[in-house]
TrEMBL record:
It comes from the Bacteria. It comes from Sporocytophaga myxococcoides. InterPro entries: AGR/TXD, Ssp411-like_TRX, Thioredoxin-like_sf, Thioredoxin_CS. PROSITE patterns: THIOREDOXIN_1 (PS00194). Pfam families: Thioredox_DsbH (PF03190). The keyword Nucleotidyltransferase does not apply. This is Spermatogenesis-associated protein 20-like TRX domain-containing protein. Residues 38-141 form the Spermatogenesis-associated protein 20-like TRX domain. PANTHER family: ANTERIOR GRADIENT PROTEIN-RELATED, THIOREDOXIN DOMAIN-CONTAINING PROTEIN. The keyword Signal applies. Keywords: Redox-active center, Signal.
């Protein structure tokens, strides 16, 4: 009886070990770098502090994707919208793109003052739901937070509205009526 139990236990262990080995990911996620993607590889995501340092040398608008780890719509927007080559190319060209975890206590500098990512998201950027995309001018002034999931077409319009500074001369409604993605 002891032999049967030992053999059964060993068989189970070997089966589980084989299952684990067969189902390991092929790519090591830590080996993939998003720091300096080449064309069409995706968005060049930066930390907030990195974006501000780059902005001091070469001013641009700042795009912030405010997310949480548990947010299903955030993950969907990453896969379906932010990974779109047209969106990634335009973001990399006109903006410094930042991922900001709305639940992180990590301290960063906003306009020279220390603040946690969580407090920045809630009190300055008014992010109360996720995802929220935030648009800043090159002086870190809030242009607008836009709450909710955005598909490629809508995000494309918003990026052009702020990226080309149409917000200075047109209302959002006027811009939507005149915008043609083919013209850009």
């Amino acid at each position: 009886m002891k032999k049967v139990l030992i053999i059964s236990a060993l068989s189970i262990c070997i089966s589980l070990t084989g299952f684990t080995i067969l189902h390991k990911p092929i790519v090591n996620a830590t080996s993939i770098s998003l720091e300096h993607p080449t064309k069409n590889e995706g968005v060049n995501w930066l930390s907030y502090d990195e974006a501000i340092k780059l902005n001091a040398k070469k001013p641009r608008k700042i795009f912030i994707d405010v997310y949480t780890d548990w947010c299903g719509w955030c993950k969907k927007m990453d896969k379906a919208t932010l990974s779109d080559p047209k969106i990634a190319e335009y973001l990399n060209k006109k903006y410094y793109a930042v991922k900001l975890n709305a639940e992180s206590g990590k301290m960063i500098k906003y306009k020279g003052k220390d603040i946690s990512e969580r407090d920045l998201a809630r009190t300055i950027f008014n992010a109360t739901g996720y995802p929220t995309t935030v648009y800043l001018d090159s002086n870190e002034n809030l242009l607008s937070p836009v709450p909710g999931y955005l598909d490629v077409d809508i995000l494309d319009k918003i990026l052009h509205y702020y990226g080309e500074e149409h917000y200075k001369t047109k209302t959002w409604e006027q811009f939507q009526q005149s915008y043609s993605p083919d013209a850009n």
